[in-house]
Design goal:
elongated; mainly alpha
């Protein structure tokens, strides 16, 4: 019933879409993935991405990756985090692209996600972010580098 509501008469309402995305995520059911994938294009993209991450179904990785390929997509930091949770190390290349985002919150989210994945390939890029103009990005890069197997991130 919740999945059917994603295309219902209130589909464009931001409050309704956000509440629906949260409710779908709380079901924990992989059957909610298609409805949440539709909500990624909605004003509730952040809630939909977070819900996909909470569900934990591998099927959610493809819609998240496609969502991140659109430069104007909303909810990018949440989508970055969810993609890292669902795709694991396979998300490395997509997450590395986000290190060059114009928005500091996206760069920080990507750095933290790569650190959680212990993606050694990103170490040189993370080293470069240690001198980013945004403090949150610098902190995220240092935290990510500390999680890499070498403990400091070595060169590329």
């Amino acid at each position: 019933a919740l999945a059917a509501a994603a295309g219902g008469p209130f589909a464009g309402d931001p409050g309704w879409s956000a509440a629906l995305a949260r409710a779908l995520g709380e079901t924990g059911q992989a059957a909610a993935v298609p409805a949440l994938a539709r909500l990624l294009a909605d004003p509730a993209a952040a809630e939909a991405a977070a819900a996909l991450g909470r569900i934990g179904a591998a099927e959610g990785a493809a819609p998240l990756a496609a969502h991140l390929e659109r430069p104007s997509a909303g909810g990018r930091p949440e989508a970055i985090e969810a993609l890292a949770l669902l795709a694991g190390p396979a998300a490395g290349a997509a997450l590395e692209r986000e290190l060059w985002s114009e928005r500091p919150e996206e760069r920080a989210a990507a750095a933290l996600a790569l650190g959680r994945l212990r993606d050694e390939r990103a170490s040189a890029w993370l080293e470069g972010l240690r001198s980013d103009y945004a403090g949150e990005v610098r902190r995220a890069a240092v935290e990510a580098l500390a999680k890499l197997p070498t403990g400091r991130g070595g060169g590329r």
